[in-house]
Amino acid sequence: MMNKKSRARTRHRRAHWKVDVPVLVTCANTDCGLRTPPHAACRHCGMYRGRQVMPPA
Ligand SMILES: [Zn+2]
């Protein structure tokens, strides 16, 4: 049985929500060097671990 939560309780819980910090690393491709998520192909140049895995955007 879920009891009705007071407004204060709800707000207190939501106060602990954090916006995810965008995790970005610099692209290993020296010609690109843009910020890209780690462990994913770079969106800008399509390179991942030194290989072209996607067509460059
Ligand atoms: Zn790149």
Architecture overview:
The protein has 1 helix and 4 strands; from the N terminus they run αββββ. The chain is of the alpha+beta class. It has a domain at 23-57. Strands 1-2 form a two-stranded antiparallel sheet. A two-stranded antiparallel ribbon has the order 3-4. A hairpin with an 8-residue loop joins strand 1 (25-26) and strand 2. The termini are far apart. Zinc ion binds at residues 27, 29, 32, 34, 36, 42, 44-45, 47.
List the helices and strands and how they pair.
Blueprint: H1 7-14, E1 25-26, E2 35-36, E3 47-48, E4 51-52
Antiparallel strand pairs: 1-2, 3-4
The protein binds zinc ion.
| Beginning-to-end CA distance, first to last residue | 52 Å
Overall mean pLDDT: 88
Structural class: alpha+beta
Number of helices: 1
Strand content range? 5-15%
User: Roughly how much helix do the residues carry, as a percent range?
Assistant: 10-25%
What shape does the CA trace take? rod-shaped
Number of strands: 4
- Identify the strand order in the major beta sheet: 1-2
Radius of gyration, whole Å: 20 Å
Bound molecules: zinc ion
Q: Write down the oligomeric state.
A: single chain
Largest sheet: 2 strands, antiparallel
Low-confidence stretches: none
**SSE sequence, one letter per element:** HEEEE
